[in-house]
Design brief:
The chain is of the alpha/beta class. The protein contains 10 helices and 8 strands. Strands 7-6-5-4-3-2-1-8 form an 8-stranded parallel beta sheet.
């Protein structure tokens, strides 16, 4: 599993406060803790007013890149903002995101042409998020075809089928898995991702729902997820699921994680 650390996001109250107070140490600590927990990418999302989003993203990028070498996942709903802050990235990472809304592909794809950057692609268009699997697959096909014109191969694309909240759509997981399987049958090297916690929105015991969704989605073939790598329960689910799927020979990774105090009850250092 490719782990995209979710914690540096201005929608989180503590992060919003840190951004407003320009608390560099708080942001640096989030970057360090997520990296130490095993994040492959760090999602950087300002979630500020449009007038200050660019300067805020650049500020966040500088702090994180001075603290860790973990590649960034530059996150903004505005592709023009991504285009402006893109030169400040020190190494290839992820763009979050493109879709068939408002010509986003036509803005983002050219800037990552000829690079090693990868991109998250959302299965929505100007009509919104489709409820049916077929429309999501068709949108994926369109985005992949556009990407190929810029020499961006499917293995550099993380398709996000946009899992809906289970409380609003009882078929949310079923639709996600169906989309995943159809997309992978068309493009075997493509990656499938999700915002892990979206499925539990509006429900009690959200962490439990997230854990079970992660297990089922990994078994179905999900490759990456935006999640909290510092959440021991989620990390435990990752290791256990890998072992159950036969991807962890002799459970070595699982056992090592336990010995290193990454999973299980927190061991107090004497």
């Amino acid at each position: 599993m490719i782990i995209i650390g979710e914690k540096i996001n201005g929608t989180i109250p503590s992060v919003k406060k840190a951004i407003e107070q320009k608390d560099e140490e708080f942001i640096r600590d989030l970057a360090l803790r997520q990296t130490e927990a095993g994040a492959d990418y760090l999602d950087i999302c300002a979630s500020t007013s449009p007038e200050i989003e660019e300067e805020t993203l650049i500020w966040l990028m500088h702090i994180v890149q001075n603290a860790v070498d973990t590649p960034l996942c530059i996150d903004s709903p505005n592709p023009l903002i991504i285009e402006k802050v893109f030169p400040y990235a020190k190494r290839p990472g992820l763009i979050n995101s493109v879709s068939e809304e408002g010509g986003k592909c036509e803005i983002i794809y050219p800037i990552i042409k000829g690079t090693k950057w990868e991109v998250i692609a959302l299965t929505c268009d100007n009509r919104g998020i489709p409820k049916d699997t077929r429309t999501r697959v068709v949108i994926t096909e369109v985005m992949v075809e556009k990407a190929l014109k810029y020499d961006i191969t499917p293995d550099r694309i993380h398709i996000d089928p946009l899992v809906m909240a289970l409380s609003a759509d009882n078929q949310s997981l079923v639709n996600f898995v169906e989309t995943l399987k159809e997309v992978k049958s068309l493009f075997p090297t493509i990656k499938v991702t999700s915002g892990l916690s979206n499925i539990s929105f509006g429900a009690p015991l959200r962490k439990v729902i997230n854990q079970h969704f992660l297990t089922l989605a990994m078994y179905a073939g999900m490759d990456s997820a935006i999640l909290d790598p510092c959440n021991r329960d989620i990390v435990t689910t990752l290791y256990v699921t890998d072992a159950l799927m036969g991807k962890d020979r002799f459970c070595r990774n699982y056992l090592n994680a336990y010995r290193k105090n990454k999973i299980g009850p927190v061991k107090v250092q004497e």
